[in-house]
Amino acid sequence: MRFPTWRAGAGAATAQRPWSAVPLRLRIVLAVALAAQLAGHALAPPPQARAVDLPEPPSLGTMQLASLGDRVPAAQAATLYLQSFDNQPGISIPFAELDYERVAAWLALLSDLDPDSQYPFLLASHVYASVPDAVRLRRMLGFVHDRFDADPARRWRWLAHAAILARHRLDDLPLAIRYAKALTGGATDPSVPGWARQMSVLLLADTGEVEAAKILLGGLLEAGAITDPQELRFLLERLDERSSR
After folding, report:
1. Three-state DSSP class for 3?
2. Using H for helix, E for strand and C for coil, what is the string for 188-243?
3. Threshold 0.70, pTM exceeds
């Protein structure tokens, strides 16, 4: 190893001397410092993260300013941040430990940045709603319901699924009927299949969650409401998981 030497006022390296020319005492100090640094890294505890570390999302205005007005890339970046938070290298935070008010705030930001994207609603109704926690599940279903009126022609499928979860996971028929009535009143676009506006019939029928989900998925396919292959594969995989339980 060689170290450059500098001549005063020259502003550039003019000569080099070998490692052997470095005084022995200085070499020992450097070796000890390097060993201490390596030992410190080896003995350091593994990285820790707590669910409360999920911060409040930035404001919509801040995200717009940072992205120079291009909302879609900003939404994608925020989505990656949210999804990577609970699954970092060496760290895994169960969904059930996350602050779902903050999760809902992040999902709202994603939807505001890219109103055409259905991904925030897929995350809410199929990913974050998978927790065995009634309070957190209700929060995710409430998020879907609260944002349904902004785009019922495309968001009806998420509210239909929310109604099924309310009926079978929460065992809350009044809440499920409330969601079904919202579908009936709001999903008036011709592209929405008629059975979706009659969700109350499906909810009151003697069917289990898996059977109801299959009916819903079949209706989505028939109506051509699922065009993204990744979304279709994800929904089919989740259906298979429920069927195998």
Report:
1. strand
2. CCCCCCHHHHHHHHHHHCCCCHHHHHHHHHHHHHHHCCCCCHHHHHHHHHHHHHHH
3. no
